[in-house]
Amino acid sequence: MLRIDNDLGRFRDIVKGRVRRELRKYMSSGELLGKQGGRIVSVPLPRIGIPHLVYGDNKKGVGQGNGPGQGQQAGEDAGEHLLEVEISVEELAELLGEELELPRIEPKGSKDARTVRHKFKGISQKGPESLRHFRRTYRQALRRTIAAGQYDPKRPVIVPHKDDVRYRSFVPETEPRSAAVVLYMMDVSGSMGEQQKEIVRSEAFWIDMWIRHHYRDVDTRFLIHDAAAREVDRDTFFRTRESGGTLISSAFKLAIQIIENEYPLDDWNIYPFHFSDGDNWSQADTRSCIEMLKTKLVPWSNQFSYGQVDSQYGSGQFYKDLRAAFPDDDKVVLSRIPDRDHIMESIKELLGRGN
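RE: above sequence
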């Protein structure tokens, strides 16, 4: 079994190495989306040769014969296979962090809820057999045997008595759970096409995975807006085909309302992410957005992130307005995403400060 475990460990190292090399492709293609199951992600890995046995040159084996169905001669080279392997979300997040050199997020505050854990703090003479401490039991039996003059170095047989048995003891402890709420806001107006939404979908997947890696509890809220904003579920967020004008302030107002009603600032780490092509209805609405950011959203948040997806119909002006309004604020992070190939760079820009 030890050899099998070692082989399995080496294979997992190979898999993680391949995932690392293919990470940029996965991030830009969205190939991992929809392959999640709990804390496990199924990763498609082409071009891994599966070891197989070759039994020499048997020309009369099964499937060998004259005609169009004649098989090929066995060779020495590994074949090409499409293999899906499972890797935990934690491992995938670690690979992302190592590849992008992302700092660890330091949670601020704690959620009001508490979790109870059992911490082993001592040794007891009573307890269930599942908690028997074999080393301490043997040590106690050895002491008793030596004290009674019954220890024979030539025949060091130690038989524990009932009074020798020791158990690990524990006490329940409560501890705060670091919690975060992530608000994803996306412009779904007419200028945001399917390609732009797909970029947002891929980027949100990796951002969400990285944040979940650092928090025990994560609430995720999805907001979409054109001229009006509303909260939707995850599937609607990524698949909606709505269109219309653009009032970015509608999304900010809804985000503020959700935070005020459901997420006390002392207990929650707050991460708003807004994605748009930078087109807003008017400069008056942009001024309203900046006012909400300066007075509420930015002070409340660990970090406010804005990702602007290039679009042939979008002006891109909102990025310029935010950069002018927050030139030196570390809690406001801006990123431009020209296309799929820049998703990795954008994530590094948004998460690289570790706020």
